[in-house]
Write a structure and sequence with these properties.
The chain has two helices and six strands, in the order E-H-E-E-E-E-H-E. The protein has helices spanning about 20-40, 90-95; strands at about 1-10, 45-50, 55-60, 65-70, 75-85, 105-110. The longest helix is centred in the first third of the chain and has 20 residues, at about 20-40.
Length: about 120
Amino acid sequence: MSKFVLLLRDREGAYPNLSPEEMQAIVQRYVAWRAKVQAGGRAIMGHKLRDEEGRVLNGKAGAVTLTDGPYAEAREVIGGLFVIDAASYDEVAELCKDCPHLEFGSIEIREVEPT
């Protein structure tokens, strides 16, 4: 079994002016999807990234710079991630077909290099 990272990229304007109740209903959809995947015998961890916060570290020619960002004004923002155990990319893609995030953006699937 391999580990895969699912990077949840939000589409610009994906969550326009939602009430706290509407946001909570969306969160519950993610919780239900994750529970369904776990009930199928897969280990899965998920994390929502903080909005409007972050740092970018860059290094070039021995100099390191730290800047604020990325910002939600960007066209494509990573809003969260899941780490899931699966046998293949195809299996992960099948598991993600009913992930609620597809309504709000895209899911990038990346296999973790075994160490």
